[in-house]
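Researcher: First entry.
Model:
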Amino acid sequence: MPSAPRVKNVSPRRQRAPGRPFSPGVSGNPSGHPKGWADVQALARRMSSPAIKTLVDLMRHGKLEQTRLSAAVALLDRGWGKPLQRNEDVTPPRDLSALSAYTPEQLMEFASLAKAYQSGHGGEHESAG
């Protein structure tokens, strides 16, 4: 008996439900940001220089210690990234050669900021005077 010619299984094109213009697994908003996000981001980036200048001014001349500290932390976070959060005790690295890139004044300022940060977050408080 002769075999019948093979015909590809052609199914009618699936119609998407109203309000679902994208195929399954394809996002209509791959970035996940709301409309207008790019405009807000561009505006914020244009204001970066004045914002940094404001943070520097607050760090140097803020009347409250908390204001100066918050501005300093914001500057450090933007310049170096936020510090990693660790749940274990971490000993300092033995190789401190990277510190040679800083002036003694910068190292003293870092130490001062670290003490202020520690005292504001449950560390030992230095006595005033």
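Researcher: Second entry.
Model:
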Amino acid sequence: MQEVSAFAIEWSGALETSVPGLTVDLQVVVSIAGVSAALLQASRPERLQPLLKLELQEAAAAHLKLIHPVRFYRDFYNNSERSGVESELVERIRGRLGNLGVVVTNVIAKPLEPPLVTRLRLLQGKPTRFGLAIYSIHTNSMLDVSGSFQVEGVHADGWYLFQTHQRDLDDIRSLLEDHLTATLGAVRLETFITDLRTQALFREKVTSVAEEFLRSELGLRIDISRLLVAIRDKSPATDADSRHSSFNSRTVPDAATDESNYNKSVFINCPFDSTYAPMFEGILFAIYSLGFQPRCALERFDSGEGRLPKLIALIDASRFSIHDLSRTELDDVNQLPRFNMPFELGLDMALKSSRNKHRRKSFLIFDSERYRYQKYISDIAGHDIASHHDDPGTAIKEVRNWLRAATNLTSMPGGDALVERHRIFANDLPRVRSELGLDKHGNLSFPDLSQAMLFWLREAS
């Protein structure tokens, strides 16, 4: 061994892990007491340190290529005692340099603070309010749920999820509200009002569902606080003792009256004629079944209200929209196409681009054939157009897949299951019409059809 003055080499940078495309930021400092004569003879003095730095980098890269990022972050960022990756990395570097004839006295390996950790600190900064409304199908009341969540950190096994899903607090709040709405579903408020144990269990369920969702979806540990649950009447019931008293008045919730309903409202822009009725029924059923609230121009009948202000108000109150452009053929009377649907799509797109509130708006644009729109409305090129081929079952699946992707909710039933559920509802609809005192024949109005679906879904659950 040839004597040289003690020196240190340092390397820092991003290294790939066992998951392609995912890297970790690392800093390594190696203290060296001496090197062998053979190494000095083989390398010029000015090239010795660059050579050793390269060997250090290759040793660290080779080892981390075998390490899953979940394990890396668990070892380096958890409060538990460091072990595993760090000690293995130190031994790997010592061995690599030792084989070259280097006397290593100390190796320090530590993770740098990457943008990942900076983002976590921003999320940990303050509590974030959330709120949602759960509608009872059996009474004419609703349940307002509100509270705060604060990001405490990342679960030991959640760093991989946290790194691959970059969400800010607004995104997390929106995802949480969507998931709670879809998961909690309708509540038997008549039991909730009188049973304190039911109320306590409901609060526990809200907390556990929220914590598990953000753990499994984003890898986050959160704390739920200031959880409030309040019962609010939509309108007085006409007969509290009647099984169907809640259906004697309008049961379609007015999402525009409550900001928290924005994130679960779906505006439907489609034809309303009898030919399209089976398609409309399928779309409506899918929306209700998945825990969302359909909105359309048919829900409000007010001769004193202009159609355009009503449409703008409905679109403004809905985070999600379905626009069906399949009816662009010439009509038999005037030999002109109907432009209502493209016009309402334009209103929605303008709203999304003009207000920060609507930056997360999501559209599902339907046509009977996927690329047909290019012949008559090419300005929407770049948007994914779904084709339903005038088949209600296909439309149901497309609505389900779109909402699944737009909300990242994992608790949704599959498309085939929804189609089968709709088939059962359609076969059972004559009985439901009879029980609710609705018209026995013909197409039901939007409020009546909504009433029938909500009633049936409550029974089915």
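Model: Note on the second entry: The CA atoms of residues 313 and 431 lie 35 Å apart.
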